[in-house]
Amino acid sequence: MKRNNDRKEYNVAIAGATGAVGIKMIDVLEKRDFPVKNLKLLASASSIGKKIAYRGKEIFVEKLTKDSFKEVDIALFSAGASVSREFIPSAVSSGCIAIDNSSAYRNDENVPLVIPEINPEDVRLHKGIISNPNCTTAIMLTVLNSVYRYSRIRKIVVASYQSVSGAGQKGISELEEQIESISSGNEIKISKFPHQIAYNVIPHIDVFTENGYTKEEMKMLYETRKILHDEKISVSATCVRVPVKSVHSMAVTFITEKNITVKKVLELLSDSEGVTLMNDPSKNAYPMPVTTEGKYNCFAGRIRKDIAFKNAVSMWISGDQLLKGAALNAVQIAELLVKNKILKRDHG
Ligand SMILES: NC(=O)c1ccc[n+]([C@@H]2O[C@H](COP(=O)([O-])OP(=O)(O)OC[C@H]3O[C@@H](n4cnc5c(N)ncnc54)[C@H](OP(=O)(O)O)[C@@H]3O)[C@@H](O)[C@H]2O)c1
Q: Which of 72, 137, 213, 232 could pair with 217 in a Cys bridge, judged by C-beta atoms 3.0 to 4.6 Å apart?
């Protein structure tokens, strides 16, 4: 690709570079030609010395420490909430902006929670940290955004079908190893998920809270409210793990303030940034993980007037949660920082 040699470039670090999301971050930075000057790949001590390809070169993985962020402009964190809590303060004190994929800071009122297609202006409110939303919330809201702008959505009832890579590399290995054990007649091992995931579905993601919903389900309510700046919207979610490698899907019913026709929903979605409509029942065309994996856009189909509720529409959504639910959204936030000249390097 031909590159503008005069463009400003930035030092980027990825904490969690060897993980399911981290690997995608490296790929997305390269594919979107993000203006990277130096890329630093950080992980735990067990990954020291591993090499990962970026722009035709191999980069050695280094151990994440509190001193890792000198001269770094943007730190993409994807190593879990406890690692974010331990290391992000040092990254921020070093003068860089941290974009965090974990849940550590999402509910902090001083930390913006951003989906660039929805609330890009919120990046300006940062105090050193910007959070990336929970993967299921990011995919659902990217699709529903244009409908919400047309007529406020008041209630959402959603059941998710979340893939094993949502639980990281170990989630993928557990599904593959269980399938292998079952086909070879060996005993299956269960460690990452609460039950066998091969040939099963598990209606349980994250820990249960006092109201009977899980934390993953409550994230869909709290994060939807924060991103849309709308405390009146309600979300009732049931989050389910399914034996799919990548891509989260969901069955969504939403109730709008004013009546909305299916024709209007189709018109809005066909013109929505980051959304692809795949809605032709006559051709059995609807989104599925096998066709959505690796795609940047989120997909919507099975769009119909809901027959149980007034002013309601039901649909099916699929999105690659390692991309729009994580790596892509994080890189899009970094692109907003560059576009709006928010980074320290832009002022010195
Ligand atoms: N997977 C998804 O779909 C998804 C979507 C949205 C958000 N997220 C969030 O993104 C984060 C990472 O998820 P993932 O799925 O990529 O997990 P993963 O595959 O398990 O990868 C975890 C990464 O964190 C690194 N790490 C773990 N402990 C560390 C430590 N003490 N110091 C430095 N690095 C450490 C690991 O390095 P080693 O390889 O050296 O162990 C690895 O690079 C989590 O917070 C998750 O909630 C994930």
A: 213
